[in-house]
Write a structure and sequence with these properties.
- UreD, UreF and UreG form a complex that acts as a GTP-hydrolysis-dependent molecular chaperone, activating the urease apoprotein by helping to assemble the nickel containing metallocenter of UreC. The UreE protein probably delivers the nickel.
- Its main location: cytoplasm.
- Belongs to the UreD family.
- By secondary structure, the protein is mainly β.
- It has one domain.
- The chain contains 3 helices and 17 strands.
- Strands 3, 4, 6, 7, 9, 10, 12, 15, 16 and 17 form a 10-stranded mixed beta sheet that branches. Strands 2-1-5-8-11-13-14 form a 7-stranded mixed beta sheet, with no helix packed on it.
- The chain is globular.
- 36% of the residues are buried.
- The mean pLDDT is 95.
Length: 257
């Protein structure tokens, strides 16, 4: 899928769209001068052998929020098969990207390789979140056999700004149960804000985060927040007000349903 924006009369509007297969994009009513786009996997989830790719271009002085209609699900894969997700986005000068997908839920036996590449212009801004849920404990599911690779690369004019890589395999339940790894957490989220005024959020966020969360400035305009929670519900209780604060407005309606 490919999506691009342009600026018309002070508003962000769609410039180009190309999509195929089960990966679709919906465009709700615009909010203010920004544009929302909702990514939808009509297949209902990802399993071994599936391949999804997204390419985005946020034109100069436009604002684009990308979210998902619901949680993504990584289902059991066949042996020697891995599902792939590739997302690549360019954000031009004066533009703002809000990358706000809902949770990805890992099921036992899943195999997923996911990559996100964002390249920012010098004065572009970004709010990014990637929430991850480890199985469905309410259904009695334990993740004892899993393969998950996740790599996030944020660059500024091609130069590295923030890189994060996660590799999880085998008995994930036993791994996450260790006190100095996750102490039994069932969900996590990574949030990154790149903005000139990012530092003003540091103090207020530290006051509201639980003991399982942390936030810091890795550069004067780059704020990074990590959060662990016992389950998805508890994660959202903390994450939603954090995202609303960093976004400066309400989240897309998909998050509230």
């Amino acid at each position: 899928m490919r999506v691009s924006t342009k600026r018309v009369g002070g508003r962000t509007v769609l410039d180009g769209l190309r999509q195929s297969g089960s990966f679709k994009c919906l465009f709700p009513k615009a909010r203010g001068g920004a544009m929302d786009a909702v990514l939808l996997n009509t297949a209902g989830g990802i399993t071994g052998g599936d391949q999804f790719s997204f390419s985005g271009h946020v034109a100069a002085n436009t604002a684009l929020t990308l979210t998902t209609q619901t949680c993504e699900r990584a289902y059991r894969a066949q042996p020697n098969q891995t599902g792939q997700i590739r997302n690549r986005i360019r954000v031009e000068p004066g533009a703002r990207l809000n990358w706000l997908p809902q949770e990805t839920i890992l099921f036992n036996g899943s195999a997923l390789d996911r990559r996100l590449n964002i390249n920012l212009a010098l004065d572009a801004s970004l709010l990014m979140v990637e929430p991850l849920v480890f199985g469905r404990p309410a259904m009695g599911e334990t993740l004892t056999d899993i393969r998950f690779r996740d790599r996030i690369e944020i660059r500024r004019e091609g130069a590295p700004l923030f890189f994060d890589s996660v590799v999880l395999s085998g008995d994930l339940h036993a791994h996450l149960s260790k006190p100095f790894i996750a102490n039994g957490a069932g969900a996590t989220a990574l949030t990154v804000l790149v903005a000139k005024d990012a530092e003003r959020h540091l103090g207020p966020l530290r006051e509201v985060l639980p003991e399982t969360g942390g936030v810091s400035m890795i550069q004067p305009d780059v704020l990074v927040l990590r959060l662990l929670a016992v389950d998805d519900f508890t994660l959202r209780q903390t994450l939603l007000p954090v995202l609303q604060r960093l976004n400066g407005s309400d989240l897309p309606r998909c998050w509230m349903i």
